[in-house]
Design brief:
Layout: H1 2-21, E1 29-33, E2 57-65, E3 68-76, E4 88-93, E5 102-114, E6 126-137, E7 142-151, E8 159-169, E9 174-183, E10 187-195, E11 200-207, E12 213-219, E13 232-240, E14 250-263
Antiparallel strand pairs: 1-14, 2-3, 3-14, 4-13, 5-10, 5-14, 6-7, 6-13, 7-8, 8-9, 10-11, 11-12
Length: 264
Amino acid sequence: MKRLRIISLVLFVVVMCTAMYGQSWVQGWTPFDNFNQEFLSPTKWLQTPACPYWTQELECVREIQFGQLRLAVRNYGDPNSNVGVQNGNSALYFSNPAAIDGFMSTVVIRRTSATACVANMGAFANAQAILAGSFFNNGTYDVWAFLTMGHDPSMDKGFVWANLLLQRQPGGSQDSVDLGGFYVGETVIAELEWDKLNHRFFARLVRTKTGEVFQQFLPYTDSDTAPPSAPQRLLGVSSYPPNCVGVRTWAGTEATFDNVMIKK
C-alpha cells in the first residue's frame, strides 16, 4: 500500500509539472530503480565503499529499507584544531555515469543537523543530501554539478535550503544559484540535468505536498568537449562539522531516495 501511494504521488507530480511546463518535462526520462528489492543491484550501481572518506565518522549507512534507498552519515570535527572542517559522506554511484545526462529522485530528509564552532566561524558547518556528478573536464579541472539540500546552524531547526552548485575540482572556482526551501520530513522530487547543447546545468525541486516548484539554470563558459578524469553520478548525504579545539562539534544527515529516473 505504501509503495502504491508513493508511485501515485510521483505520477501526480509528473502530470502536474507536464501541465505547467509542457511535455518536454517528461520526454526522454526512463525509470531506473525503485529499490523494490532486498539488495542494491550490482548491475545498476557501482560496488564501492559507502563512505570513502573516513574522517571522524562513527555512523555510516547505505541500505534498502522499506523499499527505499536509505543513506545516513554522522561525523565529528577535530578537537585539536580551529581550522577547516571534516568531510563525511555516504553515497551510491551509478554504474554507467557517462551515459547519463540527467537524473531525478524522490527525496525525504529524515533528519539533518550541524553544530558551529565560535573559534572557527570561517568554516561552513553544514549537512546535506545531494544529487551530484562530474560531467566534463574544462582543460584544467573536472567540472562537477550538485543539487544540494542542506542545513546549517544559522537556520531554524528542520529547515532545508536547496542550491544548484557548479564546482571546478580540485581547487578551482565555483558558481551557485538558489532554488528554495522546504522542511525535514517532506517528500520532494529533485532533478539534476546537464544541458550540454546550451552549455548549462539545470535543477528542479518539487514540493509534492504544496505543489510548489523551484527551478534554475546555471550557465557556464568552460570548454565542455573533454570527459572528466573520473565520470561520476551519485545520490548521497554529506556532513561537514567544523574543527574546534576542546569542543566536539558534529554534523549528520539521514535521507531516503526512491523512484530514480534517468535521461540519456
